[in-house]
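User: Okay, second chain of the day. Same drill as before: sequence in, structure tokens out.
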Amino acid sequence: MTRTQQIEHPRLVAIETTNRCNASCWFCPNNAMQREKQTMSDDLFEKIIDDCTKFPLDKIEPFLNGEPLMDPKLIERLQLIRRKLPNTKLCLYTNGTILTPKKIDALVGLGIDRLYVSLNTLDPERYESVMGLKLERTLKNLDYLTHPTRRALVAKLITIRMTRTPDISHQEQKEFVRFCRKRGVRPFIVGPFNYKGDIPSALPVPNFPCEHITRVDILSNGRVALCCMDQEGQYSWGDIRQNSVLEVYNSEEALRYRNALRGGRRRYTEPCNACNLFWPSLDHMPLFKTIKFTTEYLAYLIKHRPQGVRRPDRSQ
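Assistant: Same drill. Structure tokens below.
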């Protein structure tokens, strides 16, 4: 990096404390990963958190390709994050199947800002078919989590997510929204992403910059993936065992991706030219590009309806 290049800070750091998962969702690449299934070492995790104290960090997620609650040290790690990064938003993702009352009670008071639960369907047969798990247990966990006396103590905002697969009816989506609102949590419905073409998804690839160029995604072995869609770390930006989080984020490889996408060259940049993640990045843009990419993003939302309730006869 030359002296004339501005040092940037990532807006988000995602840490794969474990890449083990108890589910087998077809729209997630976890069950097809070739990497060794492992849990991150204490030393590596602590180094990452120490690195993150050296710059202003808006958000941190101890999650990437796996079920975080399968990490036996997750609670201790959340406590460490909150101690060392008290002003950073703490987000946690789970499929909810092992979010038992005991574990929910352990989350109380940890200062979690956002808790996301991937439920995907309220139909027991579809749930087992999609995730390979039993719905009844998960619903019991959610009943405990969302009790009015408890939910605000666990997280400031709880979101329950549905990945809208092509066979989910319009009625089921509406019932899902009612289910969430009845429990005082936020519903979120989104179409499946294609993970650079590895997962079936009919949503087209946009050309505006992807929000993932402004985050750091750290695999359980310390390698920094291009993003959460780079599940094998094939397009790595570097290794946290050798460099700091800030150094990796400002590495030549990371800058190459950010400059290409900000320059409107997503369609010419591998593997971003095959990835349909549609949330945009508008950071560090001149005004005319901000207007241009915002317009493209809004047009994409209107035309393709990638999130929210939608009839299944439209393209996913």
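The chain is about 30% helix and 15% strand.

User: Thanks, on to the next one.
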